[in-house]
Amino acid sequence: MNLFDFFRGRQKTASASVAKERLQIIVAHERGQRSTPDYLPAMQQELLEVIRKYVNIGNDDVQVALENQGSCSILELNITLPDR
Amino acid sequence: MSKIIVVTSGKGGVGKTTTSAAIGTGLAMRGFKTVIVDFDVGLRNLDLIMGCERRVVYDFVNVVNNEANLQQALIKDKRLENLFILAASQTRDKDALTQEGVERVLNELKNTFDYVICDSPAGIEKGAHLAMYFADEAIVVTNPEVSSVRDSDRMLGLLSSKSRRSENGEDPIKEHLLITRYHPERVEKGEMLSVADVEEILSIKLKGVIPESQAVLKASNSGNPVILDDQSDAGQAYSDTVDRLLGKEKPLRFIEAQKQGFFARLFGGK
Questions:
Q1: For A14, which of B157, B190, B197 is closest by C-beta distance?
Q2: What is the residue range of A24's domain?
Q3: Which among A43, B35, B140, B193 would be 20 to 30 A from A84, CA to CA?
Q4: Which chain B residues are Cβ-neighbours of A30 within 8 angstroms?
């Protein structure tokens, strides 16, 4: 800190708090992925192809989520069909 | 009961080898028979940090391949009675290590040593995998910086899923956090993640904070583990860390910024 800064007052550069926030988000996201089985992305792709045989849907229209509740796992499929 | 401790981080350059050398030396100073094993095949550096680079004849890969026995490959430290080093090969590549071979050598080491310190290479490939696979405890070395913290979290995931203990359903590897290259002044200015921030994100037990210190370069220049420099901040911080690993309670030191006087602040002292 030099003379100029001294009179201007201490300006906090808040980069550390930005770092913390970004890390908390990415780490939580990556931990979530870690607990899901490896086959999930491939399964999502295959489901997409099966549905496409009958209905024309986009890549993002099939959402697959796996939830663990105690000893029981729930596979949630959310398929958005196009407007008629 | 002998213990295998892996020093790991995921990211390179955070201080794994410095830490392995310091912790191993610290354990030997406290009377434990200790060996430090370099798993960084192809890029060995533990020998340089320990100051025994000219005494390497046989290495870890030679022992794994039965080209030499452990007695021939173990390098006895010249400073401490209880301390030994097993160097990595400089000429082979990472695939020179096999899981069976590493297991056999580590079992043999466990018979004679109280502590086996495994200095992991950076990355998450074979060398790093084998360094942590057989571990009982892990020291996760982290710099207060985004990429290092993220990689440490990734390593924690691997420690809990891709180790012998996890695959056999045994008690999990005991994880310890060691924060290195810490700048209290920059933390105070809000430029660097604090000890509390890193602890909160990784949520594992903190065992030490090593301040950024000129003593570390000085130590590696001369081939003496920094813990032997007991006048230095980093040396003392490592010494506290070893005590905490052995179950002693020690308050954290060197985590507060040095107070600057009015004139130093006015005229831009360091």
A1: B190
A2: 1-35
A3: A43
A4: 150, 153-154, 157
